[in-house]
# Entry
Amino acid sequence: MANDLLSPVTRALGGILPKSWRRDLPVVPVVRLSGPIGMTMPFTQTMSLASVAKSLERAFALKSAPAVALLINSPGGSPVQSHLIFRRIRALAEATDKHVFAFVEDAAASGGYMIACAADEIYADPCSIVGSIGVVTAGFGFDRVLERIGVERRVYTAGEKKVTLDPFRPERPEDVERLDALLKELHVIFADLVRSRRSATLAASDEVLFSGEFWLGTQALGLGLVDGLGDVKGTLKARYGEDVRMPLIAAPGSFLLRRPGGFGADLARGVVAAAEERALWARLGL
# Structure
């Protein structure tokens, strides 16, 4: 009743009141999803379900909003965290009956594209990097280094497979075969997820789409990986009108919150994680 009484007043003062005070204007909350996925980096923004859940819940909880917009900028990372975020977005969208838009900034690659597939519509900049629908793992072998410097590694296990792919031991064909099988199964899961969300628009063969290759936004549009080219403001204004409000929903947090271990331990972890992040972006030429 109170809202019904206030609406005529709000409309009458529409030219005076700031947009943020007006309840008669359409609103689409915006959530930014940025950074490598599932990595522990104390001084850099990263993404996990734990870090984005609050923002997503706040955005979808806005009852008057017809939709939620996601700003995605990620080179990928953990397949588990990517899938968990995807599933949370879909669960919230279905529970609240809201349309979901995804807008790709620099990149939505690998796990970043998996998250984008949670949206009902995906838009990209013409220069965005999109795709990389594949699975990768990498490491180093140090067994020859230990031999050269005269160090003997001693490992004691219960379970013959416990030291599979130990970087300090020579690589074994059976270990590589086992890893290859796991990667292929993950790849099938990823490809099936993309098909389930994008089957109506995909316009190329599986060999092309799921090769692990990535494309510019213009190319991704032709392949059906995105629905259009554009940014969040232009697209939402075209859909909901020039007066649409687009509040950025951020989760509460603190730069001072750290894992146990002190500043020195955080710094060491940060150096390693920064190198891993740089490698992720470098795969895309960014």
